[in-house]
Amino acid sequence: MFGFWLGETHPAYLVTETQLPREIKPYAYYLRVPDLAAFLETIQPVLETRLKESAFANYTGKLKLNFYLDGLSLSFENGQLKTVKSLSFDELENSTANFPPLTFLHMVFGYHSIDEIKHMHKDCGTKDDLTAHLLDALFPKKISKVWPIS
After folding, report:
1. Residue 92 domain boundaries
2. What is the mean pLDDT of residues 49-54?
3. pLDDT tens across 76-103, in order?
4. Contact 144/111 with Cβ under 8 angstroms?
5. Which of 2, 14, 90, 121 lies 20 to 30 Å from 74, alpha-carbon distance?
6. What is 48-96 written as a DSSP string?
7. CATH number of the structural domain spanning residue 97
């Protein structure tokens, strides 16, 4: 196999469009989770393993995630996820990370890192670098494989 790197808009690609192999970019799925707290509790063993294999192996603290209309609180003790609690609008003050609605799912499913989401959505942010690194440890960017159920 061979290829060219002439830039995406080079005319050579138009002339040879059907003769040369083309890179097929992955499809971006639109995923929703009806109960995010319950979902995170379900994947708790995975989250704890990711913490254990990171610089946050014995992390104790709280993540308070603000999704503007609601949010989540995740409490950790010695690297173990102790509680996941849904937050109402009135409980969102002093959050450690802010995500526009539905953008947090991009991290949960490994589609984007926190820095990528911050770059795309200026109203996304973290209280400090520690929070950003903790989020990336819990929800690393990874290639996902989605299989249809039916």
Report:
1. 36-138
2. 97
3. 999 999 999 999 999 999 999 999 999 9
4. yes
5. 121
6. HHHHHTSTTTT--EEEEEE-SS-EEEEEEETTEEEEEEEE-GGG-TT-S
7. 3.30.1050
